[in-house]
UniProtKB/TrEMBL annotation:
This is Flavohemoprotein. It comes from Lysinibacillus odysseyi 34hs-1 = NBRC 100172. The record marks Y29 as: Involved in heme-bound ligand stabilization and O-O bond activation. InterPro entries: Cbr1-like_FAD-bd_dom, FAD-bd_FR_type, Flavoprot_Pyr_Nucl_cyt_Rdtase, FNR_nucleotide-bd, Globin, Globin-like_sf, Globin/Proto, Hmp. Pfam families: FAD_binding_6, Globin, NAD_binding_1.
Amino acid sequence: MLDEKTIQLVQSTAPVLKEHSAEIGKRFYSLLFSKAPDLYNLFNQTNQKRGIQQEALAYSVYAAGEHITNLDALAPVIRRITEKHRAIGVVAEQYPVVGETLLEAVKDVLGDSATDEILEAWGKAYGYIADAFISIEKELYEEAKNAPGGWEGFRSFTVEKKQKETNSVTSYYLKPTDGGPIASYEPGQYITLWAEVPGEQYKHIRHYSLSEAPGKGYYRVSVKREEGRGAAPNGIVSNYLASDLNVGDKLDFSAPAGDFTLDKSNAPVVLISGGIGVTPLISMLNAIVENGPDRQVTFIHAAANSNEHAFREHVKQLDAANNHVKSLIVYDSPTEADRHAQNYDKEGRIDLAFLQGAVSAKEEAQFYFCGPIPFMETVNNMLTEWRVPKDHIHYEAFNPIAILDEE
């Protein structure tokens, strides 16, 4: 346990770290990769170029310091991080160099105001937090390895089928190369790709939601080809998968992971997706239709238009065939053909009035949403304004800074 003096120092200086979070994060990764370049293999390098990963680190450090006496308050954040750590293969031996480098970055950025006493306190706090993470991750590794069909580390999968869903989204059907069974998963979870992209110095890690209900004997992931805009780079892995990967090729994945999972109650459920955020929610929808025929589900999807609307016809068929399924479509840039066919329910963006009109059982309903960060922030704000109970709000975010008000 931490002594009272250490706790006081950490809590009193946490706001200072928050104020300088961007500089500390940037300096940290510069130092870390100079010391341990192999760690490039564990980080999303596109997020590094965009500065996203740096912000995520600083947020985590500040939040942990602020809640050092009650890490249970950060349980959802810790769970999300440890699930991702297990998925990418973070091990206990990597924590010391991270802690050492973090303290160096704090000292470099804060200068003389980061006294030896303050750095010692944060060193103790980091060790305390790291022990908690390592303990949880050890359990997660054991669970993944010992589950029926489970495995340790990364396992080879063969692309059995490659199916174009839209101009920019492609689904990949994956079966284990060794022909053995595969681990089941909870609707909403993801598998993690460790990709060797030709011409790239390091491997690339990516999390991809499973876009089908479990129990099929294969995994399906549906990936949007990310095209850079302005200074933002193209998606290295998504473009490689779309352009260069063929049926019969092999990819390495770790076992299913993630804390964004469909609850097992029979309460009404509202699934709200934006763009490629549809993937985990399609898994949930399919699972509900297959296993919970009495459970009412409202499926709301927002996209630019029908050209960019993945799984449109599939959801339409489920709506028509199941009385307990209702689907609604929002296009912010409908085509002339969309307008002529009147094949959507609202033009523009999802707003609270539209959401209130779509959901009749707000008090009982469980809300799940996924999509781009601005989309999720908007949905979260709407649900908060509507006074939806916090424990009825669930979201997925692969962007590392997408942690929506966990306090």
